[in-house]
Amino acid sequence: MNKIWLVIQREYLSRVKKKSFIIMTILGPILMAAVMIVPIYIATVSDESKTVGIVDESGFFTDAFKDKDKISFKQMHMQIEESKKNYTALGYDLILYIPKPAYIYPSKIFIFSAKEPGMNVETYIKNSINDDLRTMRLKDAGVQDEVISAMKDSVTISSIKIDETGKEEKRAGMLNFILGTVLALTIYFFIFLYGTQVMRGVIEEKTSRIVEVIISSLRPFQLMMGKIIGLALVGLTQFLLWVFLTLAIVTSAKIAFSDHISQIEKYQMQKSGQVIDPSNQVQVDESLDKTSEIFNLLYSIDFKTITFSFLFYFLFGYLIYAALFAAIGAAVDNETDTQQFILPVTVPLILSIASLQPIANNPDGPIAFWLSIIPLTAPVSMMIRIPFGVPWWQMALSMSLLILGFLFFTWFAAKVYRVGILMYGKKPSYKEIWKWMKYKA
């Protein structure tokens, strides 16, 4: 064990001192924190205010346009040609021109401006006119105002999960998919990054004949496990630093946006009926409503289970693949010869990534179940399912099989590594590797 520790220490210290490790450790938290901070920032810093001048020759839309956050409307009592010449001097950002209709109602409107009005402005104007036109046509058809008002009411859908005890929990939907995809891709990335590092390190030591000196003082299995565990600790160190730095960035951002977050919390209490003091009412706007919804979804996510699961699947997924990559490195003399062996090893990972969408579409389906149970696909596939909620027995079965898979593949890799690490000048085949498995220690 002492000798394995020395190999672990060497592999660990040589990696964490590299510039690439330091750069990725800094960039990772910034990217992850951006996912959490950007929605709040967008909600607080929305589009610039627009003042729309209305030239309505039809006379139908006097009351159609209501001022909205960042968009205000004013009637321009002048002809369209005159307004186009003077609108910037009068303080308008764009002109909404509604020509006199050829028949009953206008069929086309125009927006004149020097700058792009923006999709939000165009959509809001279009929806306002269509709503008003619809109302006028219904009135012409003799529909009562109460019926017209009721027709404008919209329905919102909330997906609620009910467990065996009857407890209700709001589903995060798309947020779960994004979170699961990010975690699955992170595991996929780390397995490939650090697994190939193990393989290249073994090839380098083998071709330089350094390994002959090393194994004179320790067994091949000890060398392999030292390399694998050392790089696993490098990956865990980087991940934990990512978590710590991300939390630090998010906490700093929370302090910077404290006023806005306080407003969101008051608004959430107001919507739930907990705020009854009129002086404590929060003015409702669309951005606040959307941001409040994002916060509700974030609070509904079980981050403790997700964090524990990620660490488990990250560690054992890496250990399985790192052992296989080490065996490949020991079996060949150069990186070119690794291609025939890498493909079968990486097919399960590629299959897991290709199945991200089907698993997210049906996280309780048979494809999702089997891919999250098989040890070689479980690390990526299960991380997609966990944010959606996975029965405890499936989690226990998946973790148990993953541990057993680790023991089996480590045993297999050790057999290949023991013989292959001292084999030179011969391209091994699958038949040759199978013979190595039968050699006695």
Give the gist of this structure.
With 441 residues, the protein is mostly helical. It has helices at residues 2-16, 19-44, 80-86, 119-140, 145-151, 174-207, 210-214, 220-256, 258-271, 286-299, 303-331, 339-354, 356-361, 366-373, 378-385, 392-420, 430-438; strands spanning 50-56, 71-75, 94-98, 110-112, 160-162, 168-170.
Description:
By secondary structure, the protein is mainly alpha-helical. The chain has two domains: 50-144, 3-Layer(aba) Sandwich (D-Maltodextrin-Binding Protein, domain 2); 172-438, no CATH class. Helix content is 65%, strand content 6%. It is built from 17 helices and six strands. The strands form two sheets. The protein has a four-stranded mixed beta sheet with strand order 2-1-3-4, covered by helices on one side. It has a two-stranded antiparallel sheet with strand order 5-6. A hairpin with a 5-residue loop joins strand 5 (160-162) and strand 6 (168-170). It is elongated and about 95 Å long. Residues 274-288 have low confidence and may be disordered.
List keywords for this structure.
441 residues, mainly alpha, D-Maltodextrin-Binding Protein, domain 2
List the helices and strands and how they pair.
Blueprint: H1 2-16, H2 19-44, E1 50-56, E2 71-75, H3 80-86, E3 94-98, E4 110-112, H4 119-140, H5 145-151, E5 160-162, E6 168-170, H6 174-207, H7 210-214, H8 220-256, H9 258-271, H10 286-299, H11 303-331, H12 339-354, H13 356-361, H14 366-373, H15 378-385, H16 392-420, H17 430-438
Parallel strand pairs: 1-2, 1-3
Antiparallel strand pairs: 3-4, 5-6
